[in-house]
Amino acid sequence: MNYMQALRYITAKGKQKAILVYWGRLKAEKYDLFIKEVLWSEYNNEKMAGTGIVFRYLLQFALVDVATGEWITYSPTNYEYSEPLSTTKIGDITKQQIMQLKKKIYERAVADFVNRYK
Question: Which residues does 98 contact at the CB level (< 8 Å), separation at least 6?
């Protein structure tokens, strides 16, 4: 049994018509002075040095119809958090700032999801 079959089975046992699975990733922007490009990477609670901090929370959904097995994926528009810093200061994002960023993206995603699939 694969992951999708397991999701369908569990949802069917719960007598539900569909299941919604979602996951998110927090990414941090880093400007590479050598190649002069912006690079995005997973954020792992490290301190950020440079001219500013920019974070992006990427959210994805998968909606699975239990009866047919059909599924769709959906990625809403991402929110970014940015904070200007001096070049000598090392920045640190707080858990509260991360939670505010997540709250904004989840609220927007739910509203968009409801409008899209009513």
Answer: 26, 55
